[in-house]
Structure formats: C-alpha cells, structure tokens
Amino acid sequence: MDGFLLLIITALLIIGLAILYSASDQNMERVMYQVINIIVALIVMWVFSLIPPQQLSRFALPIYILGLILLLAVSIHGEVRLGARRWLNLGITSIQPSELMKIAVPMMLAWYLDKPEAELRLKDFAVASLFLVLPVILILKQPDLGTALIIFASGFFVLFLAGLSWRIMGGFMLAFTAMIPLIWRHMHDYQRQRILTLFHPAQYRLGAGYHIIQSTIAMGSGGFFGQGWLHGTQAKLDFLPERSTDFIFAVFSEEFGFAGILMLVLLFVLLIWRCLVISVNAPTLFTRLLAGSITLTFFTYAFINMAMVSGILPVVGIPLPLISYGGTSIVTLLLGFGILMSINIHRKLVQT
Amino acid sequence: MHKIQSALKNYVVELKKFKIRLAIATGLMLAALVILIARFGWLQIHQYAYYRTLAENNRVSVVPIAPNRGLILDRNGVVLAKNLPGYSLEITPSKIKSLKKVFSRLSRVVTVSPSDIRRFNRLRVESRRFESLPIRARLSEEEAARFAANQFAFPGVKIHARLYRYYPFANLYSHVIGYVGRINDANLNALEKAGELDDYRGSEHIGKTGVELSYEKVLHGTPGSDRIETDAGGHAVRDLGRTLPVPGDNVYLTIDSKLQQIANQAFGNYRGALVAIRPQTGAVLAMVSKPGFDPNLFVDGIDTINWQKLSDSPDHPLINRAIHSAYPPGSTFKPFVALAGLTLDPLVANQDVFDPGYYKLPGSSHIYHDWKRGGFGVVSLDRAITVSCDTFFYNLAYSLGIDPLAHYVEQFGFGHKTGIDMPGEGKGLIPTEAWKRKFYHKPWYPGETVISGIGQGYVLVTPLQLASAVATLANNGVIMRPHVVRSVQDPETGLIHLVHPVEEGRVNASQADLDRIRQDMITVTQPGGTAPGVGFNSPYLIAAKTGTAQVIGLKAGPDAGKRRDNAVFIAYAPADNPQIAVAVLVENGGEGGVTAGPIARKVMDYFILGKVPATPAPVLTGPTPGGNKSE
C-alpha cells in the first residue's frame, strides 16, 4: 500500500461522491451504489497491490490472448446494447472485454518490449504496434471510439516511453494528416457531427451541440467561486444531460467555480506526480513502461474529459476518472493504481 | 560477463532514455494542463457574465401579464365599456397538421359554429405574427370544463383565461366609444415603429375606433411580468417573482347617457346624426349616429358574414355620421352668412330686399327659386332669418363673393376639423375659387356663390361642425374646442385628472351683431318662424334655425324615398342663458322644423328640465306636402 497515493485517491473518490450526490439530484441510492462500486474497486486495488510485478508479467501474454479471443467473440455474437456491440453474455453475467484490454494491452506491450537485448529495434516496435492495433481495430468496430482511443493511447505511451523513434512518429503524424480526408469519409455521421459541433455548437443547439452548449453554460456560470454545493441550477433543472457520468465535471465547475477546479486539478496533479515518481523509480523496463503508461493514460482520461466538457475537444464519451459515476471505470482505474502500488512496494525487493 | 555488462549498460541507457521520454511526456502534460486551465479561466472569469446570462435565460422565462383595460363611463359614472372575465379556446396553427380535423373533433366537445371558423380563418390572414389565435371566445364554464377534461386529445389547443371588453349599451355608443379588436399585423407594425411593442406584450386587443382608439394609451395600462423558473422541458418549476401590471386609467366621457338614450330614441327609425354641446366648454353632451351597430361583434374579430352585412348595408351603419359625414347644411347656414354680411358688408346686409319668390343674377336669365312660391315680399335680414327667405341670402352671398364668404364662415369651424378627441373627423367643404380650380379645373361661376348663400351647392358640413358653430353663437362668439372626454381617473389611486376645455378664439363679429342674430333665431321657434312647433309650450326660449337640404346626386330607382331632402336643425337653449347647443340632421327627413326640430326639443327638454318623454317618439313617415327645395 502506498499511503500517499491512497490518500489522494481517497480524496478524489470522496469528492466524486459529493458531486455525484448533487448531480444525481440528491439521489442517495445512486451514491450508495457508487460506494459499493468503490468498495469493490478498492478491494481489487488492494489485491493487485499484493501481486508482485514479476508474476504480473508472466500473465501478460495469456491475458492478452484471452482478451483478443473475447473481443473476437464479441464481434461475432456479442450483445448489442444502445447500438453498440460491446458485451458478451456468459450466462451468469455479462462482461465487457474492451475493459479488460485497457490493462491487458499496455501490459502486453510492456512485457514484449522488455527484452534482454540491448537496443530495441524497429522490428520490435513494428510487432508491438501490431499487438496494439489488432484489438484497437476490433474495438473500433463495435463501435466504441472512446475506449479504442484510450487503449490506443495507453499502448502508444508504452511505445513512446520505450523509445519509439521520433522519425517514425513524425512520419505517422504526416501520414495521418494526409489521411484525414479519407478518415473523414469513413467516419460515422454522428462522429462527424461531433467534430463539426465543436466548432459551431450554436448551429446544432438542439441536437448534437446541446451537450456542449449546456455544459459550457454550466461551467461559465460557475464563475470564480461557483454556485455552491447542490446549487448548480443548470444541473438541477435538467439542462445538463449525462450529468452524473461524462459531464459531471460541468456540475463540479458550476458548483465550485474556478477555484474549485483549481483544487481538483491540484489533486490530479499530485496524483500524477506521485505516479511519475513511482514510474521513474521502477526497477525493470517492464514495470517502468507499465507504470508510465498507466500514469499517462490516467492523465489522458482526465484531460480529454475536461477538455470535452469545456468545449475544446469533440464529445467522445470518456468519463472523468474517479469522479464520474460508473463501476467499471473505477474498478479498472483502481486496478491500475493497484499495479502501481505493487510496482512501488516491490521495487526494493528487486533492486538488491 | 558480456551479457551482464550489456544488461547493465542497457539499464543505464534505458533508464536515461526512459527518463527523457517521461520528462517530455510530463512537459506535454503540463502544456496541455495550461491550455485547459486557460480555457476554464476563459469560461468562468472572462466570459462569466455572458454564461451567467445564458444560464439565467435557460432557466427563467418571463411571462407577460396583460394589464386591465380602463373602463369608459359617462359623465355620471354609468359604465359604458367594461371588462368581463371569460375563457377563450386558442389554437396554435403551427402545431396542427389538419385544422379541419381539429375543428370537427373540437365541435364534439365545444360548440364551433361556421362563423367561428370563418372568423378564425380571417384572423390567420390578419394576424400572422400571433402564434395562437382564438377559435372560440367566451366559453361557458361548462364548455371550459369539458374541454379541460379532454385537453390531452388536443395538442396545440389550449384554454386561455382572459378579460373581455364588453359594451353593455351596444348600438347606442358604437361610434363614440368605438371598439377594441384583436391586434393584427398592421397594429404590430405600427407599434414597432413607435417603439411601443413592449407595452403590448401579453395583450391581444387594441382600440380600433372611437374613444377606444383616441385614448388607447390612457386606457391600455402597462403590462407586468411573471418570472418563472422552468426546467429544460419548459415546465414551470416555481415562481421567482412578479411585477404587477399597471391597470389602464378609467375614462369619463362628457356624454350624459340618459341624454344619449333620449336623443337616440327620438330619431325613431330615421338615419342621421345629433350632436349636443355645452357652449361654455365644448363638452359633447350627446353624440348619436344612426344607425349604429353592435361593437361587441368586433371585440374578438368579426366574422366575414357579419362584416359583409355591415359594410354592404345601404344604411352604412359603420360610418360615424356625426363627425365624419358631410352634408349640405341648407338653411342652417344662413345665420352665419348673415353674420358674414353684417361684418364684411353691413350696407348690403342691412338693406331690405324684395323677394318675388325667385332671384336672378344680373345679366342672366337663370332663376333661383325661393322655397315659398310668390316670395315674402320685402324682407329685412331679421325677417329673412325668421322665415328663412332664400332670395335675401342669394343676394347677400352674391354681394359678398364666394371667397370672402368662405373665409368668414370658416371661423366658425366649417371647412376644417374641429379637433375633437376622436378619430375619423371629416373636414366638410367650404368652396372657394381656388378650390374649384384645383379640384375641378374649372372657374367658379357666380351662380355657385348664389346657392352657397343658402348652404347648398358645394357647401358641406358635418353635424359636429354645425353643433360647434351654433355653440359658438350661444357662447357669444367664443369658440370652444369640442371634446368627448371629461376626465381621466387612475383606478388605483382614484385620482381624477380633468380635461381642460380649450378656447380656440373668437369670431370676428361685433357683440351687437351677435345679439341681433341670436334674437332673430329666437323668432324662428315662435309663431311666424319656420319651427313654431319646436318652441311651442316651452318654458324656456329656444334659439334655432331650420334647414331642409336638397339631397343632390342620388341615383333614381327603387330607393325613391332616398331622394327626400335631409332635415337639418340647429338650436341652443335657454336662449338667455344657454346650457346646451344641438345640431340634428335627419337623412331624408324632409323639413327641418318638422322632423329634426322635435328631436332637438326632446333633447333640450330632458337636459334643461329633466323631462323624459312619456311615450316613445312616433315614427314620422312620408314626405310633407309642398316645397321640395330649400327653405
């Protein structure tokens, strides 16, 4: 257990509950449900913090393969919910393999790239990329743009931290830029909508732009000190959709204002800083890469959500980590933190 | 060894590489964070006011509350226009796919008549800027309840609780008070231009004619507003505060409603007009224009059939004859011609004239007949007024010339608006040479001057002008501006603001001349005059002048009766201390003294003596035997 990390995480979780209480119109049931999610997640965290990283690395490949198979299974006869095929019915329960991949992919890549050889060569990165791209494509087809992006990002972070050549990255950026028209044509209508809405939300004020318009109004009207806890009018009066999940940051901003946001950001910063320290001090490449990826991924979650809610990125259905309502998200996150804690705890054992 | 060395080397280099990469990543994260915080600052600090307003607008809707319209009352407080509460059924056409279906389904719940549908369709054309329009006004409580129970089946239709304007005296005041009607696009455009649109938020009616129009600003009031917090579905959540509307002021007319009733009844079935004025102030005591119409029909938008009936009717009930219609005054013009003569050409005016029963212009063979065959022999100015000798006035007018005559009589208010506080006043016409050249591109003929002297030809006056002119005579030549509103009262404080009479000037006539003409007019209602019946049995002296004006230019045909002359009568009483001046015009009434005079007497009897006619006025029919020319 890492005391400091735990402290910050707990603080964030509590803030999350407080905001959830407001955003859900003081629905104690929802809050209680979230508390249960949190307890489950904390247990998972604790469990994973006890697993030494070496053990973990042994499971990297098998879990990855399992995940891939499950993803394939989903794409073949997964459950369709809300227009997306993301779930697999196992009789007793349904699982979402893409969630599994969120940790399986970086683990796999980190494991793969931690080779005994001195230098990592292009070939290694190529293979690693393949491991990354495969599940991402499968998830994109579900379709689940948000999760695909996150997994791609987490995998990319591993590659980046492992030393992916600048030239290759630059090359891909250029290639990507060149392909934008092609990508645009292949996008789903609603995805295109979301990007267009970003630039002209008012045009889509009653449709796709509604989210963004309402959330920027909610945020802006918070001012410096906010409207006060439980006093956010936009949220209370139903003007802010998805307010307990993706857009919970807007509720927070409205109620606690700029000052409140700075506090929240400070907590995030402290959390990430601590994770960065753990990453730097990690004993092996595997642990370093994994820790780094988890840290940067966490930042990505937070950044994308806050940017989306404040209208500088298109809406991509990504929750605010530790704050948004939703069980799977918290479990996955705390699982990751558990791994981080484990890496930190077990470092002394390896270094000697 | 080699392996360990390379492994160790890997470790150091690897770590370094990792640290660099992580540092770069950290740098990028910080940059991203800065951008994010800048964005937050922008939204919450820089644009705070803007977003705060949007948030407020999201949640607060301002609902206007229409003000109560001021009442209109007579001088004694009898209510002539009031507001009654009621329910209307309103349809929002933009929300309805098939109006026909809605009408037929509605008629199962509430009565929807074809005229209701006609009216609704008419409103749709006139009032495009209104979202919802009434299909039925004044639902009974039962109908309202029935609809409310079926409301769910009628999206786009709703009940609206409102105050309706109601005119309890209907036809009696249709022209004086006028009516309110629904605000249409033309009204909205005018309001917008005048910058008064905000005052009419929530209002559906506006004054259209009469006092309702001329005192619209006073009667309307100021709307209030309800600030209601709504959720995203537009549902009212709670009331945040209310600004009460300011009710419109009550308007007290100068009119005496009992007098008005008596005057109206006295007309019987005849068409025409009567205006009674208080000489000292110009206050209009009664103003009748017959036939009238029911103004209540107009309040919610008259339907096309009724409208057609009114506008196509040969009796033209929609015209305010009292102030708008211009008629030849006939012999009632003579006192003013006389004063013109006494003032401008006393020599001729004071000269006796021989009346053989006709008049001829020097050098012309055209004969202008006197109404009495054989004439009156030698007449003085005074006798000419008493018996209404035409020849004397043919001569006098000819001597004066049309332009001097015209300019003189205009002082009495002829030929231009009196400035009464009502819309739609007519100017009448006092012809001049210049006028004829302008409008007819022809020169003026002396013969036209001649007949102008007896109030025929091109001379046209409104009953109001006649009343005002005789009131001026009664008031010693001091002209008072006629007005119909006496005072305005603030309904909340009860404070009354009196309308001050306006003096317009004094006519150019000596006191002696005025007294002389007035004395002559007294003789008219006495034996030997043209209206002895009017003065008969009267405890007070009446000064008057009769007129029988030829109706020129009406077509022949089945309406032969319509070619009868108009009966005109002007008077004031009591002659020594005038309290009331009256002008009566009865269309196709024949002789002024016979038809119009008695009406004036009845009015004066009530006003001066408080005497109410015991029986309703007998209907006077048929032409009188004898002359059909001007008296």
Summarize the structure in words.
The complex is a heterodimer of chains A (352) and B (631). By secondary structure, chain A is mainly α. Chain A has helices spanning 3-23, 28-50, 53-77, 97-113, 122-140, 145-162, 166-186, 189-199, 209-220, 233-236, 248-280, 285-309, 327-345, 347-351, and strands at 79-81, 84-89, 94-95. In chain A, strand 1 and strand 2 (84-89) form a beta hairpin. In chain A, helix 4 (97-113) packs parallel to helix 13 (327-345) and helix 12 (285-309) packs antiparallel against helix 13. With 631 residues, chain B is of the alpha+beta class. In chain B, strand 11 and strand 12 form a beta hairpin. Chain B starts with a helix and ends in a 22-residue tail after the last helix. Chain B folds into 3 domains: 2-46; 62-253, Penicillin-binding protein 2a (Domain 2) (Alpha-Beta Complex); 257-292 and 321-609, Beta-lactamase. In chain B, the strands form 7 sheets. In chain B, strands 2, 3, 4, 5, 10, 18 and 19 form a 7-stranded mixed β-sheet that branches. A 5-stranded antiparallel β-sheet of chain B has the order 12-11-23-22-21. The interface between A and B is large, with 46 and 43 residues.
Please compute the radius of gyration of chain A using only Cα atoms.
Answer: 20 Å
Number of helices, counting only DSSP H or I runs of 4 residues or more of chain B = 22
Structural class of chain B: alpha+beta
Shape of chain A: globular
Low-pLDDT runs of 5+ residues of chain A are none
By CATH reckoning, the class of the largest domain in chain B would read Alpha Beta
Approximate helicity band of chain A: over 70%
Instruction: Return the CATH topology of the largest domain in chain B.
Output: Beta-lactamase
Structural class of chain A: mainly alpha
